[in-house]
């Protein structure tokens, strides 16, 4: 009875206390789960910046192990051939899947960063231009969600076993990521919130030219070898010696592939540096 009276008195003195507690509980329950993780968004750039550099080193390690075991001819094999034989193949597939996740995450957070820039009044002076940039940013996001599918195909369909889906995966990766590179240049050129895109422009063009030469070199080297589809043959492709016809184009194409892929990874690192300078992750 005494306890009941005390409760009644407390409610009379603080009639809203129970409702406040209830509202607080509802606020906690209804709080966006992302709010807890938002404070860590500012560190995403470390992941985006460092992982491509580590992956470049990993590719070189795959090259060393594959050449040491005699799976490929020592001088500049195709990157996929360095990961086409066990035990390297398992690690190669795993790292390609990690790159796919990296591209997905980097694309999403970069999209939110540009979206914030475009929401500022300073970059919204011309409505038509602003809408064009918004659309370009959105299409860039889609590109970074398509290209990881290609990467997963590359990593899980080995060139030594399933070359056709492997090559299809390469195109699914390379075409959207190339679009993303040049879209990034356009966006940076039209906003006032970041430094000039000199490095990114150089990386984008170098990657485009290098990979284009790599693609063109395959039928040319095959034609000189006597079969335009020679690169589809594992034995020919992996053990193309200097004494064989078409070797010059083959090795030139392989070098360009290495330059193009590593340059693409460095492009992602450059995006990571631009994310590092962003100070408003709490507001996206």
Automatic annotation (TrEMBL):
<keyword id="KW-1133">Transmembrane helix</keyword>
<protein>
    <recommendedName>
        <fullName>CWH43-like N-terminal domain-containing protein</fullName>
    </recommendedName>
</protein>
<feature type="domain" description="CWH43-like N-terminal">
    <location>
        <begin position="45"/>
        <end position="270"/>
    </location>
</feature>
<feature type="transmembrane region" description="Helical">
    <location>
        <begin position="166"/>
        <end position="185"/>
    </location>
</feature>
<dbReference type="Pfam" id="PF10277">
    <property type="entry name" value="Frag1"/>
</dbReference>
<dbReference type="InterPro" id="IPR050911">
    <property type="entry name" value="DRAM/TMEM150_Autophagy_Mod"/>
</dbReference>
<keyword id="KW-0812">Transmembrane</keyword>
<keyword id="KW-0472">Membrane</keyword>
<feature type="transmembrane region" description="Helical">
    <location>
        <begin position="205"/>
        <end position="223"/>
    </location>
</feature>
<feature type="transmembrane region" description="Helical">
    <location>
        <begin position="132"/>
        <end position="154"/>
    </location>
</feature>
<dbReference type="InterPro" id="IPR019402">
    <property type="entry name" value="CWH43_N"/>
</dbReference>
<feature type="transmembrane region" description="Helical">
    <location>
        <begin position="43"/>
        <end position="66"/>
    </location>
</feature>
<feature type="transmembrane region" description="Helical">
    <location>
        <begin position="249"/>
        <end position="268"/>
    </location>
</feature>
<dbReference type="GO" id="GO:0012505">
    <property type="term" value="C:endomembrane system"/>
</dbReference>
<comment type="similarity">
    <text>Belongs to the DRAM/TMEM150 family.</text>
</comment>
<feature type="transmembrane region" description="Helical">
    <location>
        <begin position="86"/>
        <end position="111"/>
    </location>
</feature>
């Amino acid at each position: 009875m005494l306890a009941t009276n005390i409760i009644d008195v407390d409610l009379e003195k603080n009639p809203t206390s129970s409702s406040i507690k209830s509202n607080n509980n509802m606020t906690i329950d209804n709080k966006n789960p992302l709010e807890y993780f938002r404070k860590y968004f500012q560190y995403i750039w470390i992941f985006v910046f460092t992982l491509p550099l580590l992956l470049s080193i990993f590719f070189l390690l795959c090259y060393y192990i594959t050449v040491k075991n005699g799976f490929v001819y020592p001088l500049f094999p195709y990157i996929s051939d360095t990961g086409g034989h066990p035990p390297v193949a398992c690690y190669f597939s795993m790292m390609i899947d990690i790159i796919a996740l990296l591209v997905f995450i980097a694309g999403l957070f970069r999209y939110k960063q540009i979206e914030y820039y475009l929401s500022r009044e300073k970059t919204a002076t011309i409505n038509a231009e602003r809408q064009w940039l918004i659309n370009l940013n959105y299409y860039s996001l889609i590109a970074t969600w398509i290209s990881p599918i290609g990467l997963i195909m590359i990593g899980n369909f080995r060139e030594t076993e399933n070359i056709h889906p492997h090559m299809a995966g390469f195109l699914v990766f390379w075409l959207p990521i190339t679009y993303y590179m040049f879209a990034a240049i356009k966006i940076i050129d039209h906003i006032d919130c970041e430094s000039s895109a000199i490095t990114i422009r150089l990386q984008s063009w170098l990657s485009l030219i290098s990979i284009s030469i790599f693609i063109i070199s395959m039928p040319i080297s095959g034609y000189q070898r006597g079969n335009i589809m020679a690169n589809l043959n594992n034995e020919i492709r992996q053990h193309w010696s200097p004494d064989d016809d078409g070797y010059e184009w083959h090795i030139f194409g392989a070098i360009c592939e290495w330059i193009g892929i590593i340059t693409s990874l460095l492009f992602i690192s450059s995006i990571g540096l631009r994310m590092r300078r962003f100070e408003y992750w709490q507001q996206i």
